[in-house]
Amino acid sequence: MQFNVRPYVCGALGRIDTAILGKLTAAGPRVLPALQSPEAALFSSTPLPPYHRAGNTFAFSWGERKPSSADDRAADWMAVAETYETPGLIGDGESVTLHTGALGLVDVYFVRHGDAVYFSSLIQPLLSLAPIEIDWSAWASILQVTFPLGEATPYTGVKRLPGSSALVWRYGRLATERRLPRWLRTEPYESWISPGEIVELLGEVYAGYEGRKLLVPVSGGYDSRLLAGVAVARGMDVESWTTSPDDGTDTDIAFARAITRELDIPHRVITQDAAAYPGDAAEVARRLEYLTPHHAWYAPFAKEVHGAGRILVDGLAGGPLLKNFMVSGAALEARTQAERSAAVLSSLSLGAPSQPFLSKAAAQWMEETVREQFAAATSMFHGHRAELPLSVLHTRTVRGIARSVVNLVGPEASFAAPFIDPRFFDAALSVGVARKHQGRFYREVLHAANPRVAALPSTNVVKQPLRRVPLRSTAAPARNYSHRMLETVVRRVPTLLSDEMHEVIAGGPDALTRYNGWNDRFWVRGLVLFGLWLSDFENDLSDLAPPF
């Protein structure tokens, strides 16, 4: 990992033990001191000047965007978090505050020792400060919903600071501070914003990138064609790439060719090699620190982006904001809070596999654990008018989907996420979920942006593939890799798996060919991720006794 555009950072606040801090700084990438005092320390892989410094006050940030020295929001960490979606460290003379972004896209992990917190933008260096012990609740959500929930990581001793949160050292004490983000403090009631106004707002967001070379990946769906179309309409320097999401079709590529041809922008297809899949899957899993089984397909694309010399424009959050993505009819029609939460969690969770993958005890415990975690992670949205999209944004979008741009494209290359710009985010969130039902509002937005492009086939609508193509993730190299990882799960935690799954694994790599359905494939990927984690930490894990 090369920290070209976003630095690796670590540090501490509170009653700092210099020996522990020394272990942390030695355990990760090489760092330089940015701030050192008895109560606050900050180190960075590249020089990190403060955006504010006067007397004994200071303010640092390390996201993709950051405040300027003249920004009067520097005094309030939440204003910085909301405006720039960046974590940071702020001292006001009486207290020191370590904060996240409002959504928490750029992770902050921490370990607590006594009256001090030691933090890092990566999990791995913190493992030098805490025993490596499995957090079964985190793995329950990684397996069932494909990402962890709340503050959980795969390790009990390492926690993640959620979005809109801060750790504060004040008057000799450490405290956790949670704030309501802007979109919860002022509920965005229906303002009847028009599709044309949404397009104009997106154009205003692009104004911040004038004169920059943009790379807008086009996948054939709604988000990418909207982003590409508005950028082209503004006369920006746009190039587009497409790769296969390894879904068994080349529909994305075929549709993207039509879209980029209509927009008259250069288009390139990034090919993928089945033989390289095991290496890609393992590399992505380790780089994402075993947090999600997503994104192995994205590895060849991300590597090419690193050398492109262009800002990657990503459609992050477009689905939940504009087309009710992951919001089911059952969630819209729910009459009680319990029904609504259950419906959203059901949409986010993997469905039942074609045969039991987990033992009955494991499956029951996992379902109960994930339900409790999801309730805690989304409780602040209950009763809010935009509860449904916000529940998706603060869970799946942030902890699962965002990893591709935040941790695979960045920190080597810059990315832009126009949909989370405060102006656009608030306007899109104000549109009621009923107007967005079944993508109706999004289609109106696309038509307002470019009627010809809006009329082209979309992967959001057309489900039949143009042609079937072999899956990298189920080809022979992938089966051999997956089987080795599943054998590790059998050896280390046999009670996790069902008798049926034990039989399949005993049948060898080719027995996995029965799992060709989307749902089954993701169950396999999650268990393979767990197997890789068990294999990588073979010599560090002692107690793997499960709670079921």
Automatic annotation (TrEMBL):
InterPro entries listed in its UniProt record: Ntn_hydrolases_N, Rossmann-like_a/b/a_fold
Domain of life: Bacteria
Protein name from the UniProt record: Asparagine synthetase B family protein
Organism: Nonomuraea phyllanthi
